[in-house]
From TrEMBL:
Its main location: cytoplasm. Pathway: Amino-acid biosynthesis; L-arginine biosynthesis; N(2)-acetyl-L-ornithine from L-glutamate: step 3/4. Pfam families: Semialdhyde_dh (PF01118), Semialdhyde_dhC_1 (PF22698). This is N-acetyl-gamma-glutamyl-phosphate reductase. The active site is at 132. The lineage of its organism: Bacteria, Pseudomonadati, Bacteroidota, Bacteroidia, Marinilabiliales. Its EC number is 1.2.1.38. GO terms for biological process: L-arginine biosynthetic process. The keyword Protein biosynthesis does not apply. Catalyzes the NADPH-dependent reduction of N-acetyl-5-glutamyl phosphate to yield N-acetyl-L-glutamate 5-semialdehyde. It is found in: Cytoplasm. PANTHER family: N-ACETYL-GAMMA-GLUTAMYL-PHOSPHATE REDUCTASE, CHLOROPLASTIC-RELATED, N-ACETYL-GAMMA-GLUTAMYL-PHOSPHATE REDUCTASE, CHLOROPLASTIC-RELATED-RELATED.
């Protein structure tokens, strides 16, 4: 049984992790740390857990009790935490922040996109979990990069739910502003662009094209719907086969023959990709749940890999169609 601790347990990603881990057949949730909620029941914050667990938050973490720690803190906080705390070498870390996703000197974290780095993840003790937008966009393009077929700039429009902004309330996540509303933010300069370009260059070393990314705030709660298009010389049939072959060994990515919708993936660790050819352009749609495949579900997928478990264990989550 894998003994698990969560650092920063009050946010949305931590709530999803707790729900998954409480039902994971090979995981034991040993502690959930929160500096502001020590002594409170998990269900006091994550109210949907009422009746599911009597675990209480702890204010301080005891790393001698666990095999793996999930870091669910805000961006910049994980790096700060590691500078202030000594983590035993035998304790594996899966970080859900942005802090260690980019390769830099001294960064021992492996980028945790299983569809890109599965074998590296299996051998690693430190995993940098990808960003939610980054996951969906990369899954739309990885097969092209792996075949060296990105020949021009990429155009990306992706809409995300309000949970992508985190649990702390803000002007743009307030219900009365977000409901029945759509807006663009961080056009062409979103923080996930660095990790996206890094992955494409890993697969296609000569990749040096612009990624024209327009992020959109949606008026729904969860889920990312990304549309990508770029020039492609081959036929639609060739593109579909390329994607089917690439994802054949990856259990959470499905190549759809029909135009997908968001409800097919919400509340699951699935990713659905769909392709159309328009003239000399290939359009790829990618649909994911930002809190699961884009965060906590993928983090558990990485845990399964680093502990030698079946990749899908504990992640048989069902979509809600209506």
């Amino acid at each position: 049984m894998i003994k698990v601790g969560i650092i920063g347990g009050a946010g949305y990603t931590a709530g999803e992790l707790i729900r998954i881990l409480l039902n994971h057949p090979q995981a034991e949730l040993t502690f959930v740390q929160s500096g502001s909620n020590g002594g409170n029941l998990l269900s006091d914050v994550h109210t949907d857990l009422l009746g599911d667990t009597d675990i209480k938050f702890v204010a301080e973490a005891d790393f001698s009790l666990i095999d793996v720690a999930f870091f669910c803190m805000g961006h910049g906080k994980s790096k700060e935490f590691l500078q202030k705390n000594t983590i035993p070498e035998n304790v594996k870390i899966i970080d859900l922040s942005h802090d260690f996703r980019l390769k830099r000197e001294g960064n021992e974290f492996v980028y945790g996109l299983p569809e890109l780095n599965r074998e590296l993840i299996r051998k690693s003790n430190r995993i940098a979990n990808p960003g939610c937008f980054a996951t969906g966009i990369q899954l739309a393009v990885l097969p092209l990069a792996a075949a060296g077929l990105i020949k021009d700039e990429l155009h990306v429009n992706a809409i995300t739910g309000s949970t992508g902004a985190g649990q702390a309330p803000s002007q743009t996540s307030h219900f009365s502003w977000r409901n029945n509303n759509v807006s663009v933010y961080k056009a062409f300069e979103h923080q996930h662009l660095g990790e996206i370009g890094q992955s494409f260059k890993q697969l296609q070393p000569n990749f040096n094209f612009d990624i024209n990314f327009i992020p959109v705030r949606g008026n729904h709660t969860r889920g990312i719907f990304a549309s990508v298009y770029t020039k492609f010389d081959g036929s639609l049939e060739e593109a579909v086969k390329l994607y089917q072959d690439y994802y054949a060994s990856h259990p959470f990515v499905f190549v759809s023959q029909t135009n997908p919708d968001l409800k097919q993936v919400v509340n699951t660790n699935k990713a659905i990709v769909y392709l159309e050819k328009h003239g000399n352009k290939l359009m790829i749609l990618s649909v994911t749940d930002n809190l699961l495949k884009g965060a906590s579900g993928q983090a558990v997928q990485n845990m399964n890999l680093i502990f030698g478990l079946e990749e899908t264990l504990g992640l048989n989550l069902k979509a809600v169609a209506f």
